[in-house]
Amino acid sequence: MDTQLAQLMINGIAVGSIIALAAVGLTLTYGILRLSNFAHGDFLTLGAYLTLLVNNLGLNIWLSMILAAGGTVAAMLVAEKLLWSRMRSIRATSTTLIIISIGLALFLRNGIIFIWGGKNLDYNLPVIPALEFGQLKVPQNQLWVLGLAVLAIVFLHYLLQNTKIGKAMRAVADDLDLARVSGINVDRVILWTWVIAGTFTSLGGSMYGLITAVRPNMGWFLILPLFASVILGGIGNPYGAIAAAFIIGIVQEVSTLWLGSQYKQGVALFMMILVLLIRPKGLFKGTI
């Protein structure tokens, strides 16, 4: 029982790393653009498939991840140009934005199925034996996922706290109109928000493909834990989203001891509802 619990906690940390990366992008787009983007999970899926595409051309998996991140950012910027900027210009309601994002999610998912099919696919990688620590077995891919997530989170912290664009992003998140009047280039902040969100989300999808199969609905199954992380961590707070993602990842995996794997989504939903009832603003202070 103890070994099984420890094994599930290790799995939960790996899943939490992936949720954390994607949740950062989701909470940034809400905190800065006030957009609840239900297509976020499908952009994560797109990142995984673009990684697969480049990797199958014979490129190294890590280089494939970088190029896929660029492709995902480009797709997000196209959506910004064609959809979100126009919706902001007419001051569309949050309900309208949610409906459009759901439509975009369906468009992306069906586009992926049309191009790659509905089968589970795998990266072209050598078989690497798991590391053994007593009775525990830790797949090396899970260690890579955790290491990359930590590096990405450290980079995000440096960007938000020590760079001009990071400070501008925090100002826009606090008060967009005041930031604009203060001379901050809001359009540039929006551009960087999508670049950061796209990069982190794509990396999350690529790494999810490392520890599972690449499949069209992978992002859809993560969208509930993503929103739960954003709400649990305080909407608009990337650090809170990261902490909440690890909590949700671990709790989801450990819950399979008693509930079975089919109820993972239910656990994330239960945690989200519980937080909304007890502490609607989340465990941490909202906004960047």
Describe the structure.
- The protein has 288 residues and is mainly α.
- It has eleven helices and two strands; from the N terminus they run ααααββααααααα.
- The chain has helices spanning 2-33, 40-56, 61-89, 94-116, 140-162, 164-174, 176-181, 186-211, 218-232, 238-255, 264-278; strands at 131-133, 136-138.
- It has a two-stranded antiparallel ribbon.
- The longest helix is centred in the first third of the chain and has 32 residues, at 2-33.
- The termini are far apart.
Query: What string gives the helices and strands in order?
Result: HHHHEEHHHHHHH
Number of beta-strand segments:
2
Please state the structural category: mainly alpha
Q: In terms of per-residue confidence, which ranges show pLDDT below 50 for 5 or more consecutive residues?
A: none
Largest sheet: 2 strands, antiparallel
Strand order of the largest sheet: 1-2
Give a summary of the structure in a few sentences.
The chain is 75% helix and 2% strand.
Helix/strand layout:
Blueprint (H helix, E strand, L loop, with lengths): L1 H32 L6 H17 L4 H29 L4 H23 L14 E3 L2 E3 L1 H23 L1 H11 L1 H6 L4 H26 L6 H15 L5 H18 L8 H15 L10
Helix pairs in contact: 1-5, 1-6, 1-8, 1-9, 1-10, 2-3, 2-4, 2-8, 2-9, 3-8, 5-6, 5-8, 6-8, 9-10, 9-11, 10-11
Question: Keywords for this structure?
Answer:
288 residues, two-stranded antiparallel sheet, 2 strands
